[in-house]
């Protein structure tokens, strides 16, 4: 295997950055700013470089996102902090009780702002980013031990493989639900 030159490594990094930006514009902003043919040309160039020099492939490369082989067996992941369920509130009284517990825990009587969202049932996941790069995705499992689904999560276009912005913390964990709206499940 031929070792990649600094120019090849630099070009691959440049292509990853460009393609990641184009993916962001397309999948997140819903505002593609480059013709499909140009995107395809750049994507193919990166694929060719990575095929010729496998040592330059990075965990955040967009070439491993769509169409990657799906894992059939999953390794166990022990959650550093348990992924526990949230309690529901079905009455005004239960909401007031929740507010009281929050105030007691925070030792405050100041106004507290809450954000309420509809309950979506999906697959509870934990995404781990190190130095801004997605390194692991896991299911909630029993709350203490889940399954490593990193390869599967990398196929979801709206999940960033690399966090954007300046001053990204060394370690970031994002927890949420992965779901598919009914419209997305129709052929």
TrEMBL record:
GO terms for cellular component: cytosol. SMART domains: LIGANc (SM00532). One of its GO terms (biological process) is DNA replication. Residues 7-187 form the NAD-dependent DNA ligase N-terminal domain. One of its GO terms (molecular function) is DNA ligase (NAD+) activity. The keyword Magnesium applies. Keywords: DNA damage, DNA repair, DNA replication, Ligase, Magnesium, Metal-binding, NAD, Zinc. SUPFAM superfamilies: DNA ligase/mRNA capping enzyme, catalytic domain (SSF56091). It holds the Pfam family DNA_ligase_aden. The keyword DNA repair applies. It comes from the Bacteria. This is NAD-dependent DNA ligase N-terminal domain-containing protein. It comes from Marinobacter salarius.
């Amino acid at each position: 295997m031929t070792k990649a030159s600094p120019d090849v490594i630099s070009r691959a990094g440049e292509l990853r950055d460009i393609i990641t930006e184009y993916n962001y514009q397309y999948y997140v902003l819903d505002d593609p700013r480059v013709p499909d043919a140009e995107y395809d040309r750049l994507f193919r160039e990166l694929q060719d470089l990575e095929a010729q020099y496998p040592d330059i492939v990075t965990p955040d490369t967009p070439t491993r996102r769509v169409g990657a082989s799906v894992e059939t067996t999953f390794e166990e992941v022990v959650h550093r902090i348990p992924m526990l369920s949230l309690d529901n509130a079905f009455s005004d009284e239960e909401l007031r009780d929740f507010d009281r517990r929050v105030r007691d825990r925070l030792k405050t009587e100041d106004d507290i702002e809450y954000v309420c969202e509809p309950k979506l049932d999906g697959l509870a996941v934990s995404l781990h980013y190190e130095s801004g790069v997605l390194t692991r995705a896991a299911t909630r499992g029993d709350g203490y031990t889940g399954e490593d689904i990193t390869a599967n999560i990398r196929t979801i276009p709206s999940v960033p493989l690399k966090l954007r912005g300046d001053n990204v913390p060394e370690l970031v964990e994002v927890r949420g639900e992965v779901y598919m709206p009914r419209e997305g499940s129709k052929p």
